[in-house]
Write a structure and sequence with these properties.
47% of the residues lie in helices and 17% in strands. The chain is an alpha+beta fold. It has one domain: 2-Layer Sandwich (Pantoate--beta-alanine Ligase, Chain: A,domain 2). The protein has a 3-stranded antiparallel sheet, with helices on one face. InterPro entries: TadE-like_dom.
């Protein structure tokens, strides 16, 4: 056997062929991992927005129980929503619409419906890659007049 150069020995063992394989594997897997992480983050934001909206609507309905007339109940509900937005809610002031009134099926039930525009959340950057939540989220909470 003759003396071989170190480069020839590396070529024979096959080690030289695998030098860039980690970079190629990372290049193939990285976009999928980033898409997965973005999807998890989007789902978390959507779930948090739905929960926050439900909480705001429940607080507004709970506060409206103290009102005697429908206009007083509406004022109490809208003030509660405004207070919730000012104390650090996920939504910006002005991005929520509040509808209050009696339930059409039962005059003794009072409903508070809060509708949020989700375009203010800033998650539309991923709209081409991931399915997003609807542009309007709505939460309706009903309470019996008189609180019983």
């Amino acid at each position: 056997m003759g003396i071989r150069s170190p480069l020839a020995r590396l070529a024979m063992t096959g080690w030289a062929c695998r030098r860039g394989s980690s970079a190629v594997e990372f290049a193939l897997v990285a976009p999928l991992l980033l898409l997965l992480f973005a999807g998890i983050a989007m789902f978390g934001i959507c779930l948090g927005a739905a929960h926050n909206l439900r909480q705001i609507a429940a607080e507004a309905a709970r506060a409206s129980v103290a009102g005697i007339t429908d206009s007083e109940r509406a004022t109490l509900a809208q003030n509660t929503v405004a207070r919730s937005l000012s104390t650090g809610a996920m939504f910006r002031p002005g991005s929520l619409a509040v509808q209050v009134g009696a339930d059409p099926n039962d005059a003794m039930i009072y409903t508070v419906t809060v509708t949020a525009d989700t375009s203010a959340l800033g998650i539309n950057a991923f709209s081409r890659l991931l399915p997003l939540l609807p542009t309007l989220l709505r939460s309706t909470v009903s309470v019996r007049k008189g609180g019983l």
